[in-house]
Task: structure prediction
Amino acid sequence: MAVPNLATILKRILKQPTAPFHEYHVRAEIEALLKGCPNLKLSRDKFGNLHATYKSGKSKSSPTWVLGAHMDHPGFVRRPGKKTEWDFLGGVAQELVDAGVKKGLRSKPTGDIATWNFPTQISFEKVEATACDDLIGCAVIIATFWELASLNLSTTCHAVFTRAEEVGFLGAWHMAQKWPYGKKDVFLSIETSRPVNGAVMGGGPVVRVGDRLSVFDSEGVAVLMTTAKEQGIRVQRCLLDAGACEATAVQAAGHRAVGISIPLGNYHNLDANKEIAPEYVMMSDIRSLIDLLKALVATKHDGIGERTIRERVEVRMEEYAAHMKAAAKLFK
Result:
């Protein structure tokens, strides 16, 4: 079994051109990287999302997790029915896109796609590329599956690689409407996000309290934080409200959802001066997230000492029953 290392996974994924609705190059590379991974099965849904399930033995984490990352990034796509006209899809102001094109930063087309043209550079400390958002998330999931298989961990874990996130969570919404997983399974959005509200690059992955549009499942956030604490994995806990992620879409469809992000530099290819530039992340944050995911999917909730809010209140009700009874007559 030839196990790809993290640097190889990153190089192969990050060199793939992608844009909303044109994620086929990334999807094919994910399938190639996961081919032969023990205990793993892949499938595609009607929207074109890629699903994966790792299952070994009868053990399951509690809850069972559905890891999610999107395969697109803001980019140029050929306008339908037009050979020479292009649309830029994704959250970047048109005047900034036009300025980047004028500087000659747009790549030559690959079929119906064109991207910004920056090299992929990977060192021990830093990863820099045209599109870290969210190809880094895809690479993290791939690396996690291979590490689970290499360790032959007995657990069950799912993942979904989605399409068209940058134009409104379309792939995640389709997946959430169909929801091919268990009713109690929890979706975990794995993103790269602009660090705000105290989050810093190199400080570990950020457990998201919420995003710009919603707050996330409190018990899921507690399990993430407790797992990190028990395993000695450095994480941050913040409200990342400079953007939104797929946990919001999945939660709106009626499923439990949480989010975790790797702090991202030059979000959507915009530097501090609002000029087009490569995105970048810190390698230490990537490694910490992989370690956390491995621990998360192999840990039972009742084995890490974390009570739910309901359990905590019920314990307190019993603990202070005598006080409540003694004081009750004063409220008559």
Remarks:
- The CA atoms of residues 118 and 130 lie 5 Å apart.
- The first strand starts at residue 40 and ends at 44.
- The chain has a mean pLDDT of 93.
- The chain has ten helices and 14 strands.
